[in-house]
Write a structure and sequence with these properties.
With about 280 residues, the protein is an alpha+beta fold. The chain has two domains: about 140 residues, 3-Layer(aba) Sandwich (Rossmann fold), CATH 3.40.50; about 100 residues, no CATH class. It is about 20% helix and about 30% strand. A seven-stranded antiparallel sheet has the order 9-10-13-14-17-18-19, covered by helices on one side. The chain has a five-stranded parallel sheet with strand order 2-1-6-7-8, with helices on both faces. Strand 9 and strand 10 form a beta hairpin. The radius of gyration is 23 Å and the shape is elongated. It starts with a helix and ends with a strand.
């Protein structure tokens, strides 16, 4: 590899590493995409579906999820093994929950050969009004016998078809994410601009949190958090030039710099990463 290429890689890595200072929560995704592990592991009897790794390549779960993300439909991709292990459960409202994160709708890719635990989970889900899209046929259960009436009951309360943005839109989800990034569970945002992530050129990030409209000039990456009562709490940005809210300036370093800022009761605590000097000031 030539030095120029390695320098480009280092630039991107340094920008992404800045976000470690933000320590954000998880992305606030409302859509869960499940793939059937038994279906992925069994290509039989369709030999054309057998991949070089001896798994079922016809599911195309990753490709379908990438198409959703590119269409502006954020989602999480999980295996049905998490149902079997008891990590993915239904909460008291009947919604899928894992590690404290709750989903509003489910897509199930590859239901063939599903385990009884998976079928029981999905039947309970749709019986309680859950939104489900089934992608793929299911004629046999995990033991190889006909899949039975439970699956028919699930299918009768679900949408069916290939996982596409159009099909998923019929689940009726609404997702308020900024155009250039994602919204996290705590309401904060994490943004990226590919065109300036390798340069020091400023890019105008624009985003809304609660009732406030924010604008920032920075290069490549930016993350921002607001308190529940609408006060700024934390900002991390590469080559930050300025930050404003509702047209009024909130912060501007003396010169563009990779910066982490925390708003505290005593004022602003800012860390300029090039010099690693910490300075405090008071919001006017």
């Amino acid at each position: 590899m030539d030095d120029a290429f390695l320098e480009r890689v280092k630039k991107v890595e340094d920008r992404i590493r800045l976000l470690n200072l933000f320590d954000g929560s998880r992305p606030d995704t409302k859509l869960l995409v499940l793939f059937g592990m038994p279906s992925l592991a069994n290509w039989f009897p369709d030999a054309t579906a057998r991949s070089d790794y001896d798994i079922n390549k016809s599911l195309k779960s990753e490709e379908k999820v990438m198409a959703l993300w590119k269409a502006g439909i954020p989602c999480a991709l999980l295996s049905t093994t998490l149902i079997d292990s008891g990590k993915l459960m239904l909460n008291k409202e009947g919604k899928p929950t894992i590690n404290g994160h709750t989903f509003d709708a489910v897509v199930f890719i590859g239901p063939e050969y599903s385990k009884p635990s998976t079928l029981a989970f999905l039947k309970n889900y749709v019986d309680r009004g859950g939104k489900l899209l089934l992608d793929g046929e299911a004629t046999r259960g995990f033991d190889g016998n006909p899949i039975g009436s439970d699956y028919d009951a699930i299918a009768s309360h679900s949408l069916s078809g290939e996982t596409t943005p159009v099909a998923v839109s019929k689940l009726g989800l609404t997702q308020d994410w900024p155009r250039e990034g994602c919204r996290l569970e705590d309401g904060s945002v994490m943004l990226a601009d590919r065109s300036t992530i390798e340069t020091d050129e400023p890019h105008e990030f624009s985003f809304t949190i609660g009732k406030h409209q924010y604008k920032a000039l920075a290069s490549g990456v930016l993350a921002f958090k607001e308190s529940p009562d609408g006060k700024p709490l934390k900002l991390v940005a590469a080559r930050l030039v300025s930050l404003s809210r509702d047209g009024e300036s909130l912060y501007a370093p003396k010169t563009p710099a990779d910066t982490a800022i925390e708003w505290t009761a005593s004022g602003i605590r800012s860390l300029t990463l090039e010099s690693t000097q910490t300075t405090s000031s008071t919001i006017p």
